Each structure stands twice: as C-alpha cells, then as structure tokens.
Amino acid sequence: MQWGLIGASTIAAEYMIGAIRAHEGNSVDAVLSSSRARADAYAAAHDIPNADTELSVLLARPEIDAVYISTTNEKHRDQALAALAAGKHVLCEKPLAMSVADARTMVEAARKAGVVFATNHHLRCAGAHRAAKALIAEGRIGKVLSMRVFHAVMLPEHLRGWRIDNPAAGGGVIPDITVHDADTVRFYLDEDPRRVVAQAVSSGLGQGVEDSVMSVWTMPSGIMVQSHESFTHPFAGSGLEVHGSKGSIFARNVMSQRPTGTVTLVTEAGETDVPYESEGLYEYAITAFNRAVAGEGRPAANGIDGVKSLAVAMAVRQSALQGRAVDVNYEGY
To answer: Which residues form the Gfo/Idh/MocA-like oxidoreductase N-terminal domain (predicted)?
Structure first.
C-alpha cells in the first residue's frame, strides 16, 4: 500500500514511517503539514516524495491508498471524515475525536464508505501484553478478580507543548494516557467498564489541563479495576497487575512504545518468567491493518475500540470534574 501522512508528527518520524516501510510493497508517498516550511523539511528528512499543505491535495493523489492521522486531537474528526469520503483507508491516532459522538460518526462514515478504519492503540500490539492475555485465556490464574494499571511517567520535554497547556487541542493526561489504559483493560478482560470514579489534579506540569489522575472502574463481571496515569512521575515505572483466584500476573515496564519489559506469572508453584515475541508494536499494527485491507481479519484496534476507549476516558474526566461516579456512555456501541 501507498500511504499519506496527515501530520508531520514526532510519532510518525520515530515509529510509523519505519513501521510502514518495514512491510514489502508499502511506501510513504506524501506528508501533510499546515506549514510549508515544515512540510518540505519533514519530507526531505524522511525521503518522502510529496509535501502538501492542503488536505484536499493529498487526498486527491490517486496513488494514496491509506492515510495515517497524527495531528492534534481536535483535527482528527474532520481529517478522517475527508479521507473516508475520498475512499482512503484510515489509521488514526487516539483519541479518535474530542467527543464520543464524533468518534462514532467517524466509525459510521467508514462503514458506509466500505473502507478500513482503525485506531492506533499500540499497547495491545505488544508481545508482552499478548502473552499476558494468553495466560488469562488459558486459565492460568483462575477467575480474574482485579486488575491494576499504573502508567505514571514523566512526559518527555519534546512531547509536551499542547499536551500540557491546550485543552482545545485535546491536551491533558486523560485523553493522552487514560485512553490507552482503557483500551488495554478492555483488551485483557474482553469487557467494557460500566462505571468510573475518579480524581484528577494539575500538580505542576499541566497548565489548564490535568496532569495526573487516579480512577476505579466497575466492570460488568464484578472485576475491580484501578488505574493511575500521570505526566509528572519520573521514577514510578509503569505496568499492570492482574490477580486471579489461582495466580497473579505482574507485567513491569510494558506500557511503552517499545517491545520491552517483563511478564511474571506467580502461582502456588512459584514464579515463572513468561517469554513473549519482541516484534515492534507499530510493525504489528501495520501487519494487521494491511491484512484487514486485504479482507483477512480486523485491525489490531478498530474504530469501535477507539470509540469505547474514548468513552471510558471521557467518563473518567467527567467524574473527576463533578466529584461523583459516572456511567460510561458508549453511544450505543
């Protein structure tokens, strides 16, 4: 497939361009930026033949089969809808939109257009998470009782900008990290959180947006979920725990864009280190996306996954703002 990049972004430069090109027959043929200077410089730096400043120009290129959207959050909806109307397959960064209703509109537009629409939830693509989920499916920890996700990090300086000071662009730790953890919990447990209770603060980094949040989620099965996200914790580490009636899973340093970390199974028999595939997360996502385009299966995270992770994150934000428990609104999904 031939790809167009909507957004001359850091994540595309660091991960996605390489992941696309790692697949035989895939190429990056155009990049879009609102700045002519940035579009030209980005294209030159990454050997991309076309640099565009108008979305309509990129979408009119007949050679482009699919687009990857990694602009600021408030632009995702309109850019995705335009790409879908042009018949392009779409891989969109999370969160899909600024509201759950808008995200649903994007999914429905893709369905009507008959093209693949996916959310770039990279964590579920990690070998560590897939291995840990397999332990649950195999019954290795018995009945799942609770899950704890800790994803408190120090946001790197080069990624700050709008994420810490621009609510209109979708800034804040909740749309940036809580939405990932919501997808990860759904991936592990195969069910959707029903109600959340949360507290959020701006503890020094965030300016007009929250930079730390803790929440507790009610699952339909009765499993208890606790989640912690932050931009301000340099030494907290990240990971998750899943506790069951016959054992526990401890995954450390796995909430990452890289295939790193450890997975440990603890049962009555003792501790066991769990091996996992070390394939790149984004390479895995592109493989699944390409197969979906070819009619073979589904993307790693489809549009409905994006809607539901956003719904959980928005419920967490609403709960933190209102100081009460909030039912998650999935807009009918």
So the answer is: 2-121
